Amino acid sequence: xxxxxxxxxxxxxxxxxxxxxxxxxxxxxxxxxxxxxxxxxxxxxxxxxxxxxxxxxxxxxxxxxxxxxxxxxxxxxxxxxxxxxxxxxxxxxxxxxxxxxxxxxxxxxxxxxxxxxxxxxxxxxxxxxxxxxxxxxxxxxxxxxxxxxxxxxxxxxxxxxxxxxxxxxxxxxxxxxxxxxxxxxxxxxxxxxxxxxxxxxxxxxxx
Length: 207
Ligand code: MG
Description:
By secondary structure, this protein is of the alpha+beta class. The chain has one domain: Fumarylacetoacetate hydrolase, domain 2, CATH 3.90.850.10. Helices cover about 20% and strands about 35% of the residues. Strands 1, 2, 3, 5, 6, 8, 9 and 12 form an 8-stranded mixed beta sheet that branches. The chain is globular and about 45 Å long.
């Protein structure tokens, strides 16, 4: 399986990163994380030795449930049935160095355990509660980030249409749909808890 992630998909986050990429006029900016990036089942995130500034990015994650290529937007909703909350861990210091020299920032985004995911829940049950998905992250019981899917620049269906032009989507692939404003650092000992429509789906420690 693979993980497709979207950068700069919320305007306020794009501004906090001083990035011009978060715009409806531009296509989504995609990057890939390998299967070795997955962190699940509440296992701890071990702070890597190559960074001194690991940031959390809280994101809605969808799981692809059927094989598809060149998926039209109007059919995109058929390609995912379950969602969860994930953390797109980012080595912000490495990323900044790589951006400065105009190089791909893969290693700062796609390292082992950089894609934490929670328990999956059905999309239909979430949308039965509300028209759009609310989500938030607490660290040590203090809310640090919150967002709503209606603020995405590119919707989930837009992302599926665009990504499937380049990458065949396979069953079990995950899409990280971008983070809202409010990213920040984690430190060893932190407890991260993530909520999607007030359901706690994510709960793990940084070690
Ligand atoms: Mg992200």
